[in-house]
Amino acid sequence: MERRGYIGTAGVVVALAAGSVMGTATGAAAAAPAAAAAYNKVCGSGYKVVNQIDIGQVGTSYLTYNSATGKNCAVTIRSTPGPAVHMYAWVQRDDTRDYADDDGYYRSYAGPVYLDARGHCVSWGGVIAGESADRSGTNCGRITR
Q1: What is the pLDDT of residues 104-116, one digit of tens each?
Q2: How far apart are alpha carbons 77 and 85 in whole angstroms?
Q3: pLDDT at position 16, please?
Q4: pTM (predicted TM-score)
Q5: Cα gap 56→98, rounded to integer Å
């Protein structure tokens, strides 16, 4: 499977995230922070939230993990559902090009997307209507023998 498209997309996500962070930093003092969008448990039973990041004031991206399966799940959730907007949820295993993503126009959330990453660091994030956030090299697991 050709993965060059993802590498380009990842660069766009990181660039968008940098622009979003820079754009938010200047107006952060003037605007009250929005409450995080609640995790909707869409990843399924056994998945627990291990990390989250606000996407501006429009929503939250969640990273969950299921210790029984060794899989991560990422989902991006809008704070207030409404008309469909461009949304993106993604997770990538850092030591490979293995990734999972969901890119489309949604009313409330993008994802869930699943990736086997037991014992590995992951990068993950999301986009909602042009605002983005991501984390790189987080949630590094240990392989137990």
Answers
A1: 999 999 999 999 9
A2: 12
A3: 39
A4: 0.74
A5: 27
